[in-house]
Amino acid sequence: MTLAAQGIDTGDTAWLLAATALVLLMTPGLALFYGGMVRTKSVLNMLMMSFVSIALVTVVWLAAGYSLAFGDDTFQGLIGGLDHAGMKGLGPDSVQGTVPTLLFATFQLTFAIITAALISGAIADRAKFGAWLVFVPVWALLVYVPVTHWVWGPGGWILDKLGALDFAGGLPVEITSGASGLALALVLGPRLGFKKDAMRPHNLPMVVLGAGLLWFGWFGFNAGSALGANGLAAAAFLNTLAAGCTGLLGWLFVEQKRDGHPTTLGAASGAVAGLVAITPSCGSVSLLGALVVGLAAGVLCSYAVSWKFKLGYDDSLDVVGVHLVGGVVGTLLIGVFAVEEMTGGPEGLLYGGGLAQLGRQLVAVAAVGAYAFLVTYGIGKLLDKAIGFRASEEQEHTGLDLTVHAETAYDHGVLGHGAPVSASSVPSAQKVKSQA
Amino acid sequence: MKLITAIVKPYRLDEVKTALQELGIHGLTVSEASGYGRQRGHTEVYRGAEYQVDLVPKVRIEVVVEDADSDAVIDAIVKAAQTGKIGDGKVWALPVETVVRVRTGERGPDAL
Question: Is the confidence metric ipTM above 0.85 for this complex?
């Protein structure tokens, strides 16, 4: 990323406007991806956890998040200042690199939104919606914002001082969401019936539609991170496509060998795993590197999703298995596959760079993973003590859609909620209408 | 009169309906059902986690006929629903005390 002011370039600005819209689309895409994977009784709650993150994170980001993440460093590369709180001092003429600062801030905002939404997959089916409404803004300020400053903020310690590479968000997006998801899964405990009942995805076409929208939006995520309409954006774009494909194929290969069937859920999950892993590395690795990064993530993540059954934490929709593991794979492999023509300097092990870059990547992964896990665990425990984070047993049994939102997603026939209005209730319905 | 209930594979429903029409049976009731016999269900796999599905989708066909027609109807259903593979279903018959046509109030065989 080049952050020095150079005057607005209309081509760069046009591309980043489009890329920002693409990244925002990823969150509704994620809502469908997650929504299809839960049971019928809590699909609306799952969609809502993503959707409401758009609103919550936007408000927090504009109030203070952007300034703390991307404002001038105030303490040892750990956090920015409040100079731009409430977007103070930023107008249509403010420039960051070759794009308007307000556009850069909005592009970065869309990253913060989807990262918060990603965590919801770890606590699907059993979190109090009210607690989620409090958790998201607090988490965004205490976890996402500092980590983003470390990685991309001016003077941030990871990029500027340590020299680790992260092009489009392996550290702030994938590893923080994965580690935070694990922390919250531990705070809330497993769903009722975990390991006894199989929690079958209720709508796989919805999962595939969501994965498709995620993939589409991911081009904005990764190629947009070049912050310009240029060759690096093109290379990141192609790497993104390549890794998604090998991730998909890798996951299917494991399923065929292990379970005897290549599944739809596996194809969607594998593509996402490959895309997760190429996120940090898409602007640093060769095309060969991208193919390997995607394949490695597809294969490793398809095994990692079973850890929850062995270790007993209930990460409902595999945020750990896909985002933490995929993010670690992609961030570390930069140390192997980085090429100078992409990075403009550092090279990976395979291209003669030695172990130095791999070491830097490892330090960054460990620091961000540990920070996100510990702080999120603390926030989760505090919220659980203060207002309760876990839905009641009755709510969980009945489903959060009906008990929290007073809605159900589907009409289950004449005996269910789609029952025709009975004769006795018609007069009261008309009465309500006439009063309105 | 007899109530004949048949639990068969869903995709055999059309054949059973045709067979009953050819016998001159005017009405029947079909409902979705699920269950298992000796074969039990099947296994589904989601992200490597196996899910044992015991209950297999079936349709339940119910038809009330006069005593004299009972055996012919049962034979027709069995012939139409049979695939020879496991899970073809069951047919049984029970005595019926009375039948009333709601629209006209007719009772007994006249109501069929």
Answer: no
